[in-house]
Amino acid sequence: MPEQNNSHLHALKVSCSNCTLRELCLPVGLNRDELAQLDAVIRQSRRLKRGEYMFRSGEAFKSLFAIRTGFFKTCMSSQDGREQVTGFHMSGELLGMDGISANVHGCDAIALEDSEVCELPFSRMQSLSRDIPSLQHHFYRLMSREIVRDQSIMLLLGNMKADERLAAFLLNVSSRLATRGFAANDFILRMSREEIGSFLGLKLETVSRTLSKFQQQGWIKVDHKHIQLYQTDELKNLISGCIHAHSH
Amino acid sequence: MPEQNNSHLHALKVSCSNCTLRELCLPVGLNRDELAQLDAVIRQSRRLKRGEYMFRSGEAFKSLFAIRTGFFKTCMSSQDGREQVTGFHMSGELLGMDGISANVHGCDAIALEDSEVCELPFSRMQSLSRDIPSLQHHFYRLMSREIVRDQSIMLLLGNMKADERLAAFLLNVSSRLATRGFAANDFILRMSREEIGSFLGLKLETVSRTLSKFQQQGWIKVDHKHIQLYQTDELKNLISGCIHAHSH
DNA sequence: GGAGAAGCTTGACGCTTGTCAAAGCGGGGT
DNA sequence: ACCCCGCTTTGACAAGCGTCAAGCTTCTCC
Q1: Do B247 and A108 touch (CB under 8 A)?
Q2: What phi and psi values does residue A177 have, to the nearest 5 degrees?
Q3: Shortest Cα distance from B55 to chain A (angstroms)?
Q4: CB contact burial B164-191 (16+ within 10 A = b; e otherwise)
Q5: Of A114-118, A163-167, B168-172, which range is least confident?
Q6: Cα B45–Cα B48–Cα B52 angle in degrees, nearest 5
Q7: What is the pLDDT of residues B62-96, one digit of tens each?
Q8: Residue at shortest CA–C1' distance from C25
């Protein structure tokens, strides 16, 4: 249900100009000189092992982080210990935008596999985006995209049943992997059943049961974290009714 | 649960410079000349009657809208007709930021009472914010605030029980009204039970029953849309466990 | 002012999902 | 290589919320 297009690459195109290279940035419309300025701002990338924090809720906000490689979850925790996963994030995505409003990070970002990120000091990106209009516009669009993503998750949590949520989740993961050149119908989940459940507003047992149900119906194959999608049409059918429709 | 501070006034301070006046803008740090530029960009305000659309999902995105007076809901509708309310919005709040990413509005915005809005043509705000750094920063913060708000609603929809959701909702409305100088413990709801339920991921009957339950316990008084809060402490107790806590 | 529609409340019932429990499997670390 | 711990699966049961239905109040429009 959340973004099923290839647009997350835009973040990659900006963030990895000093590594994954020039041509990735061109779509943003930067010239050679502007690229050099951008390179100068991006800090050396940081490597994180599985389980490490990219940032924590409550920490001072100084930078945005772009995922170069790897996989992350973001989550908030409540006073009584419950934690809610607010998103799963793959290469090319930009994290930390919720920290801008109060100059404090609003969630934890934790690596679910060994990962590599670029740090973008926000104040310098801000002044740079004054000089490079297309960069400014790009940032507005990225933040807007995050708003759209969050709202489609609100729709999922507010309207959909357990099997619809799982179907939407699997299709979302599948399409995002495909965008990055991985197999769309055969992948390894990097997160636990509990983390999936937390993200989808379900208990881990419900996640497990629903996956088993999908398997019994021949729609997917589940081997622990290894998922294969056999009949994506059936999954799409499940959520066809609850998908967002423009009114015109 | 969503924003319980006075920061929504920031949008007002920007948007209403040509009406609600100068001093409201100063906190953003604009000088006389910059204010004049801003005034020139803001279009004459528009009046809307109850039930009218400020914008519709699918329409071309050209402007953001600041609510000067009145009350709005934003909602998305799915193909099978179900609609989900994604937010309720009061004076001073800025709407339409989800349209930036795709140049298309992503939700409907509908007046729940006669209202008045300022239109901010986005491309002109964008170029103006290049010349006025504090305005640029202000916009980033407003968008970030929207992300934070959406994520706290995700937390509500993913983790909380019906009575916790209602308590969080009532306290949120109360605090936002107080911020605007209205009574915090005695107010008229502008939306129906069904709209509340849609926003909170509940059915209207559950909303009604839960309000009745609160009333039986002496915590509130319900007379249709007229709500009085008698024991906000009890409501706060309900949600104290599920409120967001920084990890440090 | 009256009639109809829309919104609200309340009850009875059932389904979906959460809770508790037990057992199996797999993976990571020593 | 082995062991232990954590993750997953599955079952039985309970509860919370949704569904259906009826009756009531309030608002709107003529």
Answers
A1: yes
A2: -65, -45
A3: 11
A4: bbbbbbbbbbbbbbebeeeeebebebbb
A5: A114-118
A6: 140
A7: 999 999 899 999 999 887 777 899 999 999 999 99
A8: A224
